[in-house]
Amino acid sequence: MIRQRLAEYLSNKGVSNYQFYKxxxxxxxxxxxxxSIRSDIIEKISYKYPEINLTxxxxxxxxxxxxxxxxxxxxxxxxxxxxxxxxxxxxPLYDIEASAGLVELFRHNGDSTPVDxxxxxxxPKCDGSVYVTGDSMYPLLKSGDIxxxxxxxxIQNNIYWGEMYxxxxxxxxxxxISVKYVQKSEKGDSHIKLVSQNAxxxxxxxxxxxxxxxxxxxxxxxINSMG
Length: 227
Hints:
The chain has two domains: 2-59; 72-224, Umud Fragment, subunit A. It is 19% helix and 30% strand. It has five helices and twelve strands.
């Protein structure tokens, strides 16, 4: 029954089975199998489709979509098993444009002047936070949301495949900054695949040598407003 409700949700949102398998890295035909769904799979589904009501998905009770207060600040934490959660920390909020891009921000992180600070208890250690621009991660993230990040220095060895990253790419001499899922590329270890939440944005394989800066997203903050 869980698979049937999941299929109903995907149909309702216009998400094809192909897109679902790509989003979740599950094998083709998974939706057609019999039996229950493991908790780690449900967690992965919730991560990729945060608006789905898990109570409805598991039990069939309630509404398909989570009910959200239209004026409310929401924080979603993406923590790893190795993360040490901090009861209190002050996370600087930076303006990427004022910092001349992500590369310069990371290079002069200790000297950059934040536009504000964020204090949320129970977050993993973060190096900073920035505003999101663009719609590549919609509906998970929208332009104006905030992401808190942890800088990654060793790109070759410290990428957690399938996680969300703030990334700077050298695009014909210009810096292209975006938030993407980073997956392994079929082109081999010399490339990474950047995947959007928004189905209208196609995945793109990028040479590692084009990555100028990268940071693991540790939390996202959305302020919902009717205005």
